Amino acid sequence: MTDEGTPNPGEEAAKAAHRLSAAKYIEAQRAMSEFQSECPQAAGNSGGGGAIPPECPMHQQQLDGDNMMPPPNQRPAFDQPFPLNQSRETSSIPRHGTGKNWVYPSEQMFWNAMTRKGWNWRDEKEDVTPESISEIIKIHNFNNEKAWHEILLWEKFYDEECGDPQLVKFQGRPKDMSPKARFLTTFRSWPKPFDRHDWIVNRCGREVRYILDYYDVGFENSDDSVLIDVRPAMDSFSAMRDRFKVFMLRNVPRVASFLFEYPMIPKGMDPAEISRTEGNENQS
After folding, report:
1. What is the pLDDT of residues 154-184, one digit of tens each?
2. Is residue 231 within 8 Å of residue 247, measured between CB atoms?
3. How many Å separate Cα 172 from the centre of its chain?
4. Helix/strand/coil (H, E, C) string of the chain?
5. Judging by DSSP bridges, how do beta strands 90-95 and 100-103 pair with one another?
6. What mean pLDDT do residues 216-236 have?
């Protein structure tokens, strides 16, 4: 804002560029997740008898079983209007069994993922720039770090048992709405999540599945326009117990403090919680 209270053109332009980049990030992530979900895990798996999409790499090569993606495609597209960075940033997320951390896709890999699903940059050529693609990568990496941090908060319940949880693998499941997402969209009037991931975490020898639902909330006054609802899948007694604990800690903390000890409450990327928070902020 300027001293007179009028919008600063530079700030407005930056916000517009961020919103565009966030929208393209959502489109690119959905494209990559759809690719993961449509392609069978191995050449011998026909995906339930249906036709394997022609772009699936098992026609030529194997998928990486950990992320359900082909080997990195760093080849520039034939009609690409400008060169893209092919360097890849190393995450803070430990990759189980390797002694290394997971590595994020490059700008070129993201571009290829979008064009693979039919995106045509010419439809929005005035807005597609090297800077906007770079911003997409920053948003993608930020959201993954945010999701992993939330998982670590859940894993704090098991600090004494395991102080070094690691990510084994993940898979996009954009067409499989989770029960919680279905409840929120049906009874709480929330939009459908634009993506879903299942992350498998190794808790010192025990594999635990986490569900991540991605919502496009479009906060106008925040750089963080993607809400990620992270929680363990309720496919074990311990996961159900953890979900109950966190529900109590978020909603009736005074009662919960008498029932059990807790190291830290997961941040709570919960659509219902965010809705209440927004309402409180509007009243203040």
Report:
1. 999 898 899 999 999 998 898 899 999 999 9
2. no
3. 9
4. CCCCCCCCHHHHHHHHHHHHHHHHHHHHHHHHHHHHHHCCCCCCCCCCCCCCCCCCHHHCCCCECCCCECCCCCCCCCCCCCCCCCCCCEEEEEECCCCEEEECCCHHHHHHHHHHCCCCHHHHCCCCCHHHHHHHHHHHHHHHHHHHHHHHHHHHHHCCCCCCCEEEEEEECCCCCCHHHHHHHHHCCCCCCCEEEEEEEEECCEEEEEEEEEEECCCCCCCCCEEEEEEECCCCHHHHHHHHHHHHHHHCHHHHHHHCCCCCCCCCCCHHHHHHHHHHHHHC
5. antiparallel
6. 79
**Distance, C-alpha 274 to centroid of its chain:** 17
pTM for this prediction = 0.75
- What is the average per-residue pLDDT within 246-268? 71
Q: With the CA atoms of 133, 134, 139 and 141 taken in that order, what torsion angle do they form, in degrees rounded to the nearest 10?
A: 120
Categorize the per-residue pLDDT at 43 as very low, low, confident or very high, splitting at 50, 70 and 90. very low
Is the CB of residue 185 less than 8 Å from the CB of residue 194?
no
